[in-house]
Design brief:
mainly alpha, 3 strands, single chain, 6 helices, about 10% strand
């Protein structure tokens, strides 16, 4: 798949803007997310998109396919696009990239607020409560 994508990037003249990093260290991933402007999740096969959660924890707005569990992760912190619709994806990315400073900051803050519900300690506590048969809000 990577060779085909690399060929397409070359054909489209995007060699200077697209890089397929392959496996990267956790530090390189943190750095990429910290330096990013927006996170795009075009896949429709993401059940509990850890990548999207990591981007949110980095305070990035998220543009994701309106599929599976991804809509659960978008609520004022980015946009959903119609799966398979490249024009819609491009439009939503453009909306984020051209947002006012205030709107962009609001999306970043919303990502950080939403990620709190996915904190590992909170998640473990919820699972433990469920295991004990306790009610979980």
């Amino acid at each position: 798949m990577i060779p085909k994508l690399t060929a397409l990037v070359h054909e489209l003249g995007l060699d200077d803007r697209v890089r397929f990093a392959g496996f990267v260290t956790d530090e390189a991933k943190r750095q990429a997310l910290t330096n990013g402007t927006v996170f795009a999740m075009p896949s429709t096969a993401e059940l509990q998109s850890i990548s999207s959660l990591e981007a949110m924890a980095s305070g990035l707005p998220v543009v994701a396919a309106d599929s599976m569990a991804l809509p659960h992760l978008i609520d004022g912190n980015g946009y959903l696009f119609t799966p398979g619709d490249a024009a819609d994806l491009a439009a939503k990315l453009t909306t984020v990239l051209t947002a006012s400073d205030e709107d962009y900051t609001t999306m970043r803050e919303r990502s950080l607020a939403m990620i709190e519900a996915h904190d590992i300690n909170r998640t473990l506590s919820t699972f433990e409560s469920l295991y004990r048969g306790e009610a979980v809000a």
